[in-house]
Amino acid sequence: MKPAKTFMKNVKLAGGLLLLCAALISPAPAAKAAADAASLDLSQTGSVKVTLYSDETNAVVTDGALTLYQVATLGLEDGNMAWTLTEAFGDCQVALDVTESTMADKLAAYVQTNSIQGVTKTAGTDGTVTFDGLQLGLYLVAQTTQSTGYYAIAPFAVTVPIEAGGAWVYSVDATPKCETLKEEETELVASAETEIETESETETEAETTAQSETAQSETETPENLPQTGQLYWPIAILTVCGVLFLAFGCVLLRNDRRKEGK
After folding, report:
1. String of b and e for 157-180 (b: at least 16 CB within 10 Å)?
2. Per residue in 71-84, pLDDT tens?
3. What is the three-class DSSP state of 244?
4. What pLDDT, in 10s, does the model give residues 142-175?
5. Are 67 and 146 in contact (CB under 8 A)?
6. Averaged pLDDT for residues 27-54
7. In which region does residue 132 sit, left (phi positive, over 0), alpha (psi from -120 to 50) or beta (all else)?
8. Whole-angstrom Cα distance, residue 136 to residue 48?
9. Residue 238: what pLDDT?
């Protein structure tokens, strides 16, 4: 009995060793190959769909405007993908590295400094903003009108297309983080808006008053002007007196001549 037990033990050990060797020798499943530059279709156009959604409120954000800026075009150079800066960003010194976390902020600062114009769209009722018909390239997305009750989203860069699952995806979806404003900051924003409205109303009232005063001064006639203190009736009296004195003198002169004739 003892030799039989020893034999069975050795068989099990040998079987285990064979299974281990088989596992080590058999090849691992091959990883799916990434999309390469050769498969890139430069004749394609793409799109960027941004969904404004808040995890804090578990709801879409239905207002606010986003602006899209094309930073660079995408092409091939010696069989490799290559970026070419657009005319608007031709002088920017920002390295185009999508893995660099600060690149989007640097590009956004360049946009502000140089007053670069982009394509602006407002979020719909579903909280989405879609930019379509896009040339392949690198884009910057920034929120240019803040959503009510939320902080502006951080600017971010996106490439069209992106590589996913070993293929190029030309319709890109993005869901940036939307954070709700703190209560005290919401009150400050409301207070600032109220002050702006009050200042606007004050300026309007001042302009209306000034226009009214101008119109009143233009409609005044000389008869309505105040007297300066100069009187005209003494001139008439003096004129009459002068005529009387002249007539009286003529009468005296005639009488004298008659006397001399006698």
Report:
1. bbbbbbeeeeebeeebeeebebeb
2. 999 999 988 999 99
3. helix
4. 999 999 999 999 999 999 999 998 999 999 999 9
5. no
6. 80
7. beta
8. 11
9. 74
List, in order, residues 6 or more apart from 215 with CB less than 8 Å away: none
In whole angstroms, give the CA distance from residue 171 to residue 163.
11
Q: Are 173 and 52 in contact (CB under 8 A)?
A: no
Judge contact between 135 and 81, C-beta under 8 A: no
The residue count for the chain:
262
Strand 137-145 relative to strand 65-77: parallel, antiparallel, unpaired? antiparallel
Buried/exposed 47-80: b ≥16 CB within 10 Å, e otherwise = ebebbbbbeeeeebbebbebbbbbbbebeeeeee
* Residue 104 pLDDT exceeds 60: yes
If you average pLDDT over residues 238-249, what whole number do you get?
74
Going 156 to 54 to 66 to 173, the CA torsion angle's sign is: positive
Write the pLDDT tens digit of every residue in 170-192: 999 999 999 999 875 555 545 55
| Predicted local distance difference test score (pLDDT) of residue 21 | 38
Of 237, 210, 243, 127, the C-alpha closest to 174 is 127
Element (H, E) at 194: helix 183-219
Max CA separation in the chain (angstroms): 204
